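Run folding on both entries below.
>entry_1
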Amino acid sequence: MKKSLLIFGLILLLVLVYTTVRFSHSFSKPTTQQKGVVQMKTQPTVMASNSVYQVMPSAKLGPIFTDTNGKTLYTYKLDSEGVSKCMAGCLKAWPAYQASSNVSLPQNISVLRRSDGLLQYAWKGMPLYFYSNDKQPGDVNGEGIGKVWSVIHQ
């Protein structure tokens, strides 16, 4: 009888060990259900921000200036202080950073009235633009185009 109880106890112990190992091992395997999972890109780290722009890191250029949504800001070499020369077709590729009239302006930011009547933000007097081929926050695809477009960076 003792022998039967001992054998029964050993079998029970083996079943428990097997079940525990099998159960814990199933959690360590990746499941095939993960194929359809969409991973979200994380937003780049914001280094500084205010009501008009933020400073974000760029692997290509170092810290760059973007609008508050992460769209990179550019200046146009052919502009002069307070005057935009980017009109019509130019504005399709390089949309003006349109200003809001009810925002407190940080240092070095001003608002100019374009010849088409729109209000546009300016950095140290130079009108600010976006590049239409920048698709993701922090893209700098317009840097150096025509040797007249420059990302604002520190």
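>entry_2
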Amino acid sequence: MIDVLRIPVSKEVLHAMPKAERALFLLLGYASNQINLFSKLVIFSSNKTPLEQPEQSLSGVQTQMLARIIIGVLNEAWELIRKRFLGTKLGKEYTPRLDIRGQAALDKLKKNFGGSDIFNKIRSNYAFHHPYDSDVNDAFLRASDDSNWDADWNWFFSRHNFNSFYFMSDVVILHGILNAIGETDLIAAQKRIMAEVRQVSEDMTQFIMALTASIWVKHFGPQMTGEVCAKIAGAPDAFEVWIPFFVEIPPEERIVADHAHSPVEASNEGLSVTRSLLARSRARLS
């Protein structure tokens, strides 16, 4: 059973806060929400390794793509802290107010982002921005010369775009990432990246909690009042949830055809069904 606490936050107090401090306070919550979401998605995606190909490879790439996104999210959170907290009046005021765990987390974040800079390299070139043509072509040459990947120059298409993947493109991008972080071994690179993602996620979350608490105490007082607004029963175990790559489309929206389609026709039909699914999703939310 999960107890959900509702914590009222006074708009009057928020209005009275200095603008820079209020913006930081709100952005810390926004950053934390993103980190929590993508941390869960990475865990869910990696909870199971399919036994058959190509599902095993596609599931693995899906996890790597989510990891790249959370790397970008964590790097953006650090840029928020670096530019709007460290070295500012707010930083000088609040750093001494952090609890021991918050100060330790900040020290580790400084060390991590001031060292290998893996996060910024991946974020700037492969997570939130597409790489330059020169980097793509260099990655292509590296991938084409890597005989370990000779069997992986493929596309995987299905009747619906949700179940299709341009695998060859990610093979090239992966080699670009390996080069950017100074690795040649895929397994070693994956372990290095995921270890840093876990550590930085934990440190970032701990620091945000500590800084948010310090700002709260100054403006809202030493106490926080909350009430249980919901009790969630039957929530799944976080390490039992899995995000598969392949998904069945509901029968009434599944593409049914008696003849083979060209790639263009299949793509157009897939787009039509995607729009139908998105429309259904919007209707459920309204």
